[in-house]
Amino acid sequence: MASVKVIPAVVSLLVGASVQLTATTADSAGNVLSGRSISWSSSNASVASVNSNGLVASVAPGSATITATSEGQSAAVPVTVTNVPVASLQVSPASANLLVGQALSLTATTRDSAGNPLIGRPVSWTSSNPSVATVSSSGQVTGVTQGSATITATSESKSSTAALTVTSVPVAAVAVAPATANLTVGQTVQLTATPKDSAGSALTGRTVTWASSNTAVATVGPSGLVTSKAAGSATITATSEGKAGSATVTVAVVPVASVAVTPATATIPSQGTLQLTATPKDANGNTLTGRSVTWTSSAPTQMSVSSSGLVTDLADNVTVSITATVEGQSGASVVTVQAPVASGSVPDPTLLPVASGQA
């Protein structure tokens, strides 16, 4: 025998496909020799294997040489194995809604032209809007901010997409702090509203509106600053995305700490009168207006005082304490009545009804 010939001489296969090779032996004159024994071998059985009959089966992408040998003569056939090409790609789920911070794993299935799944094919992932949703190399999507994004999976130039919509975590409750506040008229207090999700976690960047149930008692600004106006109570409510929380504000008048009566001392003529003035003050010495004053005389049969503080002498040669009381606090003026003037004499001008120290 002079030669061995194998047909086909060159083979290209897709993974999983097979081809039958045929070996022919010939003498030196080219005459076909029949009945000769032929052995088959592969240079790389992990790429393409061959059985004793010359049937080649592709295993994995790559190259191999299939050799037919008979009586010391041989012929080789190069075999190239390639993957079945990706004909289509399917991403699942095709659309999804995410909350900010939430994650979702997408899957991409590659298929051949017959619709059969192809395994082990590399897939790349991209996001059309990473500021809204990012995607990892494994297809895990994470919501970043509110908005929409398209996630694309690509394999061997074939691609498929998933539509993502990202929304904010909804507000489930609003906590207002402090929950209660006690103020005096004119004071302020800063309230803070914290929107929270259903798990009780604080949510940032949410819009909060403020309202007072009784603006005559307390008003509230857009930042939650409460200003007391008059004695009473009011409910301050903070609302965010339809959820609300509230604080109770109680307003009291500034308490009277002292009462100043002027003049503090005075001398009036017999059967004379004197107008006293009472000034309520707070703990800082500030004058308080609109307070009710009660006047009393230590000796009402000798010297009377009206509800307006007008003192009237009823007896001679007496010294009486006139007291003004406001909300439990009091102040007094000491009033002396000069002796009656004898007929035809001139009154001492130093004893006229003037405040002490003002003569």
Q: Summarize this, please?
A:
This protein is an all-beta fold and 359 residues long. It has strands spanning 3-7, 11-14, 18-20, 22-26, 32-33, 39-42, 48-50, 55-58, 62-70, 73-82, 88-92, 95-99, 103-105, 107-111, 117-118, 124-127, 133-135, 140-143, 147-155, 158-167, 173-177, 180-184, 188-190, 192-196, 209-212, 218-220, 225-228, 232-240, 243-252, 258-262, 265-268, 273-275, 277-281, 294-297, 303-305, 310-313, 319-326, 329-337.
Describe the structure.
The chain has 359 residues and is mainly β. The protein has four domains: 3-82, Sandwich (Immunoglobulin-like), CATH 2.60.40; 88-167, Immunoglobulin-like; 173-252, Sandwich (Immunoglobulin-like), CATH 2.60.40; 258-337, Sandwich (Immunoglobulin-like). The chain contains no helices and 38 strands. The protein has strands at 3-7, 11-14, 18-20, 22-26, 32-33, 39-42, 48-50, 55-58, 62-70, 73-82, 88-92, 95-99, 103-105, 107-111, 117-118, 124-127, 133-135, 140-143, 147-155, 158-167, 173-177, 180-184, 188-190, 192-196, 209-212, 218-220, 225-228, 232-240, 243-252, 258-262, 265-268, 273-275, 277-281, 294-297, 303-305, 310-313, 319-326, 329-337. A four-stranded mixed beta sheet has the order 2-10-9-6, with no helix packed on it. The chain has a four-stranded mixed beta sheet with strand order 12-20-19-16, with no helix packed on it. Strands 22-29-28-25 form a four-stranded mixed beta sheet, with no helix packed on it. The protein starts with a strand and ends in a 22-residue tail after the last strand. Residues 351-359 have low confidence and may be disordered.
